[in-house]
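ingest -> validate -> predict -> emit
validate: passed (alphabet ok, no gaps, 224 aa)
predict: started
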Amino acid sequence: MSLTVLHEHINFRYEVLKKLGSGSNAVVLKCMDHTTMELVAIKIFRNARGIKANVQKEVEILKRLREKDFNNDHNIIRLRETFSFRGHHCICLELAGLDLRKVMKTAETVPTMQSVRLYARALLKCLSLLRKEGISHGDLKPENIVLIQNTIKTINFGQSCYGERALSDIQRIWYSAPEAILGLKSSGPMDMWSLGCIVAELYSGEILFPGHHNAHQLALIMED
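emit:
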């Protein structure tokens, strides 16, 4: 994507400092906001068929959560603004640190029980608001949980939805509830299953159900 050139200015405001990551639908950049002089993350979506509806849904959910989480204390990534630039849909978010996957990979020891409790409480607070608003995240995993200052926040609401809907195959099966693997619709209880898998992994340092494919994943779950 041509917009990832270092020191390029996006929307005449955001200076590109670093590429943070990319996925099938978007690239995320670390930028300097020259209006507020703050570091931010800009998520730039690719121009591909079917992307527009997904972007609109993600933005709608982020705006709703920002409105409901007016004290910014439910551990959800904060949407700052949305805009279009050179034909690309863009989302400006608060800048986060490492995700839990990278933290667990680089840590020499597993987190203390106190840290695990704090992480679990933070995630439960996020899921409590999602449940209240009738939203399921749909892709809860360590890569979508990031450190910000002294807490963690949930990111990447691209697979989120209101109510129930069929899941895509994007979610990693290690954190998928049996219902999701069997092709049932996404719902809040499935997010709780994902949370349980994440907390167990934080505590033990090992993936709870490291399946290689759907059938293997279900077999591991049934064995335990």
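The mean pLDDT is 92.
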